[in-house]
Amino acid sequence: VVMCCLLAADIQFDQNSPVPNPNNTPNTVQGSGTYTLNQGENIISIRFYARNTKTGQDFVNFADTNKQNKTWNKELMVFPGTYECWAVMLVSKGNIWWFEHTDKRIVQVK
Questions:
Q1: Cα–Cα distance between 88 and 97 in angstroms, integer?
Q2: Closest Cα to residue 6, out of 98, 105, 102, 80?
Q3: Is-contact 101 11, C-beta < 8 A?
Q4: Is the peptide bond before 26 cis (omega within 30 degrees of 0)?
Q5: How far is residue 35's CA from residue 33's CA, in Å, rounded to a whole number?
Q6: Residues 82, 102: Cα–Cα separation, whole Å
Q7: Residue 107 gets which letter from DSSP?
Q8: Is residue 50 a contact partner of residue 20, using CB atoms and an 8 Å limit?
Q9: Which of the pair, 2 or 110, is modelled with greater confidence?
Q10: Which of 35, 37, 87, 106 is at 20 to 30 A from 44, Cα to Cα?
Q11: Residue 64's CB: how many other CB atoms inside 10 A?
Q12: pTM (2 d.p.)
C-alpha cells in the first residue's frame, strides 16, 4: 500500500489535444501531450486510444515519444463520428510496473 504513494509518474494531454481532423485530414484524430517521471522510473510505452461513443469500437496504437522533451504524439485513422480519447503510459521502476492515464476527452471527427 505504501508503494502507491511513491509512484508518481504522470501523463497529460496538451491543452488543445486531442485534435480532430488535424491539417484538415479526414478520418483522423491526433493526440499529443507530455509526461513526467521520477528518479528511477522508466517509460515502457504510451498508447493513444480513440473509442467510438456510438459503436464502442476502439482504435489504438503506440505513440511516438521524445524522451528528451518528455512529449508524446500519435495520429489514428478512424471513421467519422464522436470519439472518447485517452492515453495510457506503462511505467516501470525496478521490478514494479504500473499504468498511468490521461483524462478522457470527447472529439467529433469528420
A1: 13
A2: 98
A3: yes
A4: no
A5: 7
A6: 18
A7: E
A8: no
A9: 110
A10: 106
A11: 13
A12: 0.91
pLDDT in tens, 74-102: 999 999 999 999 999 999 999 999 999 99
Dihedral over alpha carbons 55, 26, 77, 110 (to 10 degrees): -20
Angle subtended at Cα 77 by Cα 12 and Cα 75, rounded to the nearest 5 degrees: 35
Q: Which grid coordinates belong to 57?
A: 469500437
Q: Give dist(CA 38, CA 31) in Å, integer.
A: 23
Cα dihedral across residues 56, 74, 92, 106: positive or negative: negative
Name residue, grid cell 464522436: 82
Neighbours of 41 (CB within 10 A): 17
Give the separation between CA 53 and CA 30, rounded to whole angstroms: 17
